[in-house]
Amino acid sequence: MIAQASESSSAPDARAPAQSSASAEAQAGLKSLSLREKVAQLVIVPFYGDDLNSRSSAYAEYRRLVADVRVGGLILLNRVRHGSVEKARSHDVATFLNRMQRLAKLPLIVGGDFERGASMRLIDTTEFPHAMAFGAANDLALTRAWGAATAREARALGFHWVYAPVADVNNNPDNPIINIRSFGEDPAAVSRHVRAFIEGAHADPASRVMVTVKHFPGHGDTATDSHIGLGVVDAPRERLDSMELVPFRAAIDAGADSIMTAHLAVPALEPERIPATVSPAILTALLRNQLGFKGIVSTDAMDMQGLTKQFPPAEAAVRSLLAGADVLLIPEHPGKAIDGVVEAVKSGRISGKRVDESVLRVLEAKARLGIDHRRYVDLEKLADGLNTPEDLQLARDAARAAITVVRNQDNLLPLRDPAGSCFYLLSGSRFSTQGRDLAAEIRRRAPAATVSLLDPGLPASELAATAQSASSCHAAVAVSWVAAASYRGNVALAGGYPAFMEKLLAAATPVAYISFGNPYLLRAFPAVKAYMAAFSTTSSSETAALDALLGQAPVRGRLPVSIPGFAAIGDGLDLN
User: What is the number of domains present in the chain?
Assistant: First the structure.
């Protein structure tokens, strides 16, 4: 049985139980659980890491879910205020997790959407570029090292389950939710990077994590954000076999621990217009039986509208398990989801054996990871495991190798006269911090340059006047940060920015465009003289792009995607 651990078990122990002992431990744990407790072990609930006051109502709810309901695990999310994401503090998160693990009768498995490393959710961690930057760098050693670094930081913080890498092939330029989260458009290249990430994350037994490839059977060719509605991948089976499914096959071969389902319809695989998450044809017939996947099948977040618009919480949970899922991630109402499954077992709709299969997979994973033997984070040593010099250098190397110049008419880049240039930084919103650090760095390196930090909500007249100011500049540099975001619905420039760009391009001053996110924006502004893609919105990418812009670093990156009408996969210009 997986027993309650003591504080003294916080000392690291790299020795994970062998498969046989992990299975025996899991079997003992299974026998100790009631039906309701078994179902609860399949439920992962969200936390934010800032609910530390033990007398608060929020903390009381976590205590109830962990100690009484006995949910199987937690997943870290960020709070969003005024449209801006607020990341958690590493020390707060580790402290919270220690408290929750102390309350848990069975050890909790803790996960995070660490697609950009732990920095996707936490401050004080290494800020790695997005996956597409690694695709552009096209150096598998960098991707492998990134997987290893992500695993190290995750385990240092008390996390065991990394919901990465993204295995979607971004073959739709208008995809509003994948975009730079993907390694690219070529399924073979995406497969190589997915495999390398998994190898890195599994390399060191002391920091091994569970990895989850997502979003099965492939979310790259849809124009709908599944947070908002049901997306559809309307491709024939032959195309799915040669495109969407290729990276998932590679991931399974590389030993992926888990695969996450997508809340999208795939008519070639499932004739009923329902999400893959609740389709036996997709999760059991295809994933389990045809592709031979033996690990944990996790749903995507079950509070997403791609699922909730069709099924209430209890029905969604039941249908997901019947389809072949093991883990119910972020049910809209955990209690209703658990009640629904328990009633389905009692009525005979779901067999007890089916539930036991999934519970055993979860308990075996916990045992293999040795969670019970290292439940707690050593807060004294936490800082030494985060933001290490080696990981910071890795992030810088990847960001620099990713910089890709797609167009450079009249050799506009590198800038010949930075001091006489005008920089227009198109930040995300007036609440956003995007552009502030870059603006300060441009002013430091080129004090005489004109730097304008803009807001998409500015009056049209003010944006027009700012665009007209470019007439006095040797060159104009427009910079944007546009990345896929939940519930946004597109990856286009916001607010008054498109009109601003048209006015900027109407002037006689040559315009260079730097995209720190969506690489396809060249389609919207084909008149720019130069176009540079960084494939990431992170600070390391800002530094790398500025180095290239000022001629302080060479450019060797190549496009991991095509830009329809303008560039093919593999295109890119070298700059010395």
Answer: 2
Please give the C-alpha separations between residue 409 and each of 56, 508, 512, in angstroms, as whole numbers: 60, 14, 10
pLDDT tens digits, one per residue of 501-538: 999 999 899 999 999 999 999 999 999 999 999 999 99
- Token representation of residue 501: 């760009």
Q: In the chain, what are the helix, strand and coil shares in percent, each to the nearest 5?
A: 45, 15, 45
* 271 and 226 share one domain: yes
Q: Which helix (H) or strand (E) holds 214?
A: strand 210-216
Confidence of residue 431 (pLDDT cuts 50, 70, 90): low
- 418 and 316 part of one domain: no
- Please state whether beta strands 422-426 and 476-480 pair in parallel, antiparallel, or not at all (unpaired): parallel
Domain range holding 517?
A: 403-549
Percent of the chain with pLDDT over 70: 95
Structure tokens given for 123: 């401050």
* 300 given a catalytic annotation: yes
Catalytic pick from 202, 227, 263, 373?
227
Catalytic-labelled residue, pool 168, 186, 300, 455: 300
Which CATH number does the domain housing residue 421 bear? 3.40.50.1700
- Residue 410 catalytic? no
pLDDT digits (tens, 9 = 90+) for 220-269: 999 888 888 899 999 999 999 999 999 999 999 999 999 999 999 999 99
Q: Global pTM?
A: 0.94
DSSP lists the bridge partners of residue 47 as 76
Cα–Cα separations (whole angstroms), residue 54 to 4, 44, 66, 98: 21, 21, 14, 13
Mean pLDDT calculated for residue range 103-120: 97
Task: Kindly give, in sequence order, each residue whose CB lies less than 8 Å from that of residue 46, ignoring residues fewer than 6 positions away.
Answer: 74, 75, 76, 77, 330
CA proximity to 163, closest of 207, 212, 201, 200? 212
